[in-house]
């Protein structure tokens, strides 16, 4: 499958501004981190866009690597004989709900520790989070990598209740 074919297919789903061909300047940081394997990078903003990307990859026969944010934490990568498109979920960064009574947050996969911290400071200052070592890492990426925080609630895999 040609590079441009994947790029064109993904651009039809998320828009040309959010898809980078592997030879583009915007893809350089991804290439530096993951090598020249990904043929394209797509940054969906909604669950519907992500679903369409997964469906398209299945129909067109290319593999997907997924990462919650551009930092690379939580990246799901592996070897493939197929062409590969990298899906960066950093645009899916909405804080959907904070329940101050039960002290939980419902967030999209691209929400970073910094974004969640800032939101809590602005709206629920009595709540706090056990932040990752890199505040630009995603909360979901940290959970999927089984990373630990610094407090008794730092076992993120144990403290999450659904992904």
Topology:
Elements: H1 3-14, E1 19-21, H2 28-34, E2 38-42, H3 47-60, E3 63-67, E4 84-88, E5 95-99, E6 104-107, H4 113-123, H5 139-144, H6 156-159
Parallel strand pairs: 2-4, 3-4
Antiparallel strand pairs: 1-2, 5-6
Helix pairs in contact: 1-3
Structure, described:
- The protein has helices at residues 3-14, 28-34, 47-60, 113-123, 139-144, 156-159, and strands at residues 19-21, 38-42, 63-67, 84-88, 95-99, 104-107.
- The chain has 163 residues and is α/β, with parallel strands linked by helices.
- The strands form two sheets. The protein has a four-stranded mixed β-sheet, sandwiched between helices. A two-stranded antiparallel ribbon has the order 5-6.
- Strand 5 and strand 6 (104-107) form a beta hairpin.
- Helix 1 runs antiparallel to helix 3 (47-60).
- The longest helix is centred in the first third of the chain and has 14 residues, at 47-60.
- The radius of gyration is 17 Å and the shape is elongated.
- The two termini are 32 Å apart.
Please name the defining characteristics of this protein.
163 residues, alpha/beta, four-stranded mixed β-sheet, two-stranded antiparallel sheet
Q: Walk across the major sheet and give the strand order.
A: 1-2-4-3
Order of helices and strands: HEHEHEEEEHHH
Low-confidence parts lasting 5 or more residues at pLDDT below 50?
Answer: none
Task: Indicate the structural class.
Answer: alpha/beta
Number of helices: 6
Mean pLDDT score: 84
- Residues in helix, %: 25-40%
Shape: elongated
Query: Radius of gyration in whole Å, from Cα?
Result: 17 Å
How many β-strands, per DSSP? Answer: 6
The major β-sheet equals:
4 strands, mixed
């Amino acid at each position: 499958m040609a590079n441009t074919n994947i790029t064109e297919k993904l651009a039809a789903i998320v828009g040309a501004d959010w898809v980078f061909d592997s030879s583009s300047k915007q893809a350089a940081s991804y290439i530096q981190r993951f090598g020249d394997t990904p043929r394209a990078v797509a940054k969906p903003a909604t669950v519907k866009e992500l679903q369409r990307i997964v469906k398209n990859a299945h129909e067109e026969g290319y593999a997907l690597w997924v990462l919650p944010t551009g930092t690379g934490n939580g990246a799901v990568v592996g070897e493939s004989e197929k062409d590969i498109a990298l899906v960066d979920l950093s645009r899916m960064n909405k804080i959907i709900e904070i329940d101050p009574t039960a002290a939980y947050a419902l967030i999209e996969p691209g929400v970073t520790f910094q974004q969640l911290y800032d939101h809590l400071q602005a709206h629920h200052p009595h709540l706090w989070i056990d932040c990752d070592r890199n505040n630009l890492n995603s909360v979901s990426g940290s959970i999927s990598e089984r990373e630990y925080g610094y407090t008794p609630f730092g076992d993120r895999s144990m403290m999450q209740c659904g992904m």
